[in-house]
């Protein structure tokens, strides 16, 4: 008899049971990040790779600054960050150069013309 009462109780409560349960949070769709290489980021990566292969003793980077060409020396390392070449100097200071403004990278006596 107890079993029958228990089954009867379960049968009457079963339809109301899902409504009594707390709502679960909706599923959050997974996000996907897509990185698209731009011409500036490809240029920066190429410049950083070239700088790493050159002799740091005579390495000079020429870049367009305002209306003149400026140069930086004393470069220890360089790495690309999107469209920027991040240069670390021998003293530990850092400089960020827009890759599109670099005119010439040389480890010789060559200078930009113009």
Descriptive overview:
With 114 residues, the protein is an alpha+beta fold. The protein has a domain at 39-106: SH3 type barrels. 27% of the residues lie in helices and 30% in strands. The protein is built from 3 helices and 6 strands; from the N terminus they run αααββββββ. The protein has helices at 2-13, 17-20, 39-53; strands at 60-65, 68-72, 75-81, 84-89, 94-98, 102-106. It has a 3-stranded antiparallel β-sheet, covered by helices on one side. The protein has a 3-stranded antiparallel β-sheet with strand order 3-4-5.
Number of helices: 3
Beta-strand percentage range: 25-35%
Q: Could you list the spans in which at least 5 consecutive residues all have pLDDT below 50? A: none
Helix content: 25-40%
Describe the strand arrangement of the main beta sheet, using strand numbers: 2-1-6
Reported by name, the CATH topology of the domain at 39-106 is SH3 type barrels
Morphology = rod-shaped
Count of individual beta strands: 6
C-alpha Rg, in Å? 32 Å
* Element pattern in H and E: HHHEEEEEE
Signal peptide: 1-19
Keywords: Signal
Summarize the structure.
The protein has 3 helices and 6 strands; from the N terminus they run αααββββββ. With 114 residues, it is α+β, with helices and mostly antiparallel strands.
Task: Describe the SSE topology.
Elements: H1 2-13, H2 17-20, H3 39-53, E1 60-65, E2 68-72, E3 75-81, E4 84-89, E5 94-98, E6 102-106
Antiparallel strand pairs: 1-2, 1-6, 3-4, 4-5
């Amino acid at each position: 008899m107890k079993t029958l009462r228990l089954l009867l109780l379960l049968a009457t409560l079963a339809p109301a049971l899902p409504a009594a349960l707390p709502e679960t949070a909706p599923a959050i769709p997974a996000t996907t990040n897509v990185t698209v290489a731009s011409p500036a980021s490809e240029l920066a990566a190429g410049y950083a790779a070239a700088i790493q292969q050159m002799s740091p003793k005579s390495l000079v980077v020429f870049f367009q600054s305002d209306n003149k060409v400026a140069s930086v020396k004393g470069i220890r390392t360089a790495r690309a960050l999107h469209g920027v070449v991040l240069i670390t100097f021998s003293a530990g200071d850092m400089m960020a150069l827009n890759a599109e403004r670099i005119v010439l990278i040389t480890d010789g006596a060559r200078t930009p013309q113009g």
